[in-house]
Design brief:
single chain, mainly alpha, globular
């Protein structure tokens, strides 16, 4: 008898848990924003990592789709093939570089320089765009370049299994020259274009956007920014 009651209680608890989980899933489908807000409260880092990665990868896909349309108009045929590995690189950097970095950076700014006065907003804006952006932009481009050359080296080793010493030497040389070229030619333009986009966007964010939504807000602005970075760092490189 006792065993039978215990089984019924366990069954009822399992049924209740199932119904609660079903209601949560339906709530997420009906109101995804509320579901996202809840996840920000319960799993802030994980939620920002996933959303930032998806948005960064989508920015690269936007860039590639625009290029494909232009090539189709010019050549009257779809000659562009999507580079999914390239999109994966942007997704990885969005998840594991951008998301945690800006999460802790914005959190520190809001703690060190609190308030919504014009003075506080101006100080945060100066720190973000005057100090952080000129350092983070070359960091992002450098990490992107390293990931590209890791993929390049893997493909090269798959084709050429011999002459390992010379292949590694050439890989290091190519990485150095490619990185130097991008830091010299792409970073200054990226910083200037970034200021024209991010200064007004960050002014709005620091004035009106709550702290827990700031990474999402910057990622939404970053959708277009990542499309630009994808174009900037790959423009004409197929011909070099």
């Amino acid at each position: 008898m006792i065993g039978s009651r215990s089984s019924r209680i366990i069954t009822l608890l399992q049924t209740e848990l199932y119904h609660r989980q079903t209601r949560r899933n339906l709530c997420a489908l009906r109101n995804p924003l509320q579901w996202y807000v809840t996840k920000l409260d319960t799993h802030p880092i994980t939620t920002k990592v996933i959303s930032s990665g998806l948005i960064s990868g989508s920015g690269d896909l936007l860039c590639q789709s625009i290029i494909a349309r232009k090539e189709k108009q010019q050549q009257q045929q779809p000659s562009h093939e999507y580079d999914w590995i390239r999109t994966l690189r942007f997704t990885i950097l969005g998840s594991f570089l951008v998301a945690p970095t800006v999460h802790f950076w914005y959190g520190m700014l809001m703690r060190r320089i609190p308030g919504t006065s014009i003075s506080s907003i101006a100080k945060r804006l100066f720190c973000d765009q005057g100090l952080f952006a000129p350092l983070f932009t070359p960091t992002f481009i450098s990490c992107l370049t390293v990931l590209e050359h890791v993929s390049y080296q893997s493909d090269k080793e798959a084709v050429h299994t011999n002459n390992t010493h010379n292949s590694n030497h050439q890989h290091e040389y190519d990485l150095y020259t490619h990185l130097k070229h991008r830091l010299k030619n792409d970073v200054p333009d990226a910083i200037l274009v970034g200021w024209s986009m991010w200064v007004p966007s960050m002014a709005v964010m620091f004035a009106f956007v709550p702290s827990k939504f700031q990474v999402l807000y910057s990622n939404m602005i970053g959708f277009g920014w990542n499309a630009y970075l994808s174009w900037r760092t790959h423009e004409g490189e197929e011909d070099r």
